Amino acid sequence: MQILISRTAFPVQALGPGDRAAIWMQGCSIHCSGCVAQDTWGTPGSTRRQVGDVLDWLGSLDDVDGVTISGGEPTDQPEALQALIAGVRRTRPMVDILVYTGRSARWVLSRGRAMIAGADAIITEPFVQAEAGHLPLRGSDNQQLIALTPLGKDRYVDGPLPDRRRIQLDVADGEIRMIGIPTPGVLTELVRRAAAAGLSFRGTSWQD
Ligand code: SF4
């Protein structure tokens, strides 16, 4: 089974509890205004991998508490998403699986139910810039965090969630990759501080 992947990272602490493996799927048909990850929208020229290769990467990691699948829009690749979640569940039965989607909870829990089978929690609804806020793990206040299993309830309802002020930065190959959900104004401040330090961006994955 092939899957379009933007990137993977470990350990990630900003996208769920504990040390997580994060998998960003490539391609998004939703195009929320104000999306900070517009580099994940397009599919031409993107990396096509086997789901099994992604699972091998996951299997090579030690001390993984959870897996976060984001994008892009994971449900734009329904078969790959289903295979990925099933594979994680099979190979890492103790980790929690969180899936981000810009689709509505109503859609995901009805028509999309099969493709998220095995996930412990989902974050649904498109990003709405006018409702950008400070809720844990969510970019805008309309977005819903829904626990689907007892493990999901334990980790996402009863347990502590990451502080939104924490953003991880990964610097490689002339790029700064941001991991996390920036609170309003943070990216503007990032650009301002970079300019003050003599750094300018050739491009960003968001629009000012
Ligand atoms: S916020 Fe998510 S669903 Fe919305 S455009 Fe960006 S990647 Fe797509």
CATH class term: Alpha Beta
Strand order of the largest sheet: 3-1-2-4-5-6-7
Helical coverage, percent range = 10-25%
**Known CATH architecture:** Alpha-Beta Barrel
Cα gyration radius (Å): 16 Å
Shape: globular
- N-end to C-end Cα span: 37 Å
The total tally of domains equals 1
Indicate the multimeric state.
single chain
State the CATH topology. TIM Barrel
Identify the CATH homologous superfamily.
Answer: Aldolase class I
List segments where confidence is low: pLDDT < 50 over at least 5 consecutive residues.
none
Question: What structural class do helix, strand and pairing data support?
Answer: alpha/beta
DSSP summary, beta strand count: 9
| Largest beta-sheet characterization | 7 strands, mixed
Question: Proportion of β residues?
Answer: 15-25%
InterPro entries: Aldolase_TIM (IPR013785), rSAM (IPR007197), rSAM_sf (IPR058240)
GO molecular function: catalytic activity; iron-sulfur cluster binding; metal ion binding
Protein name: Radical SAM protein
Organism: Kribbella antibiotica
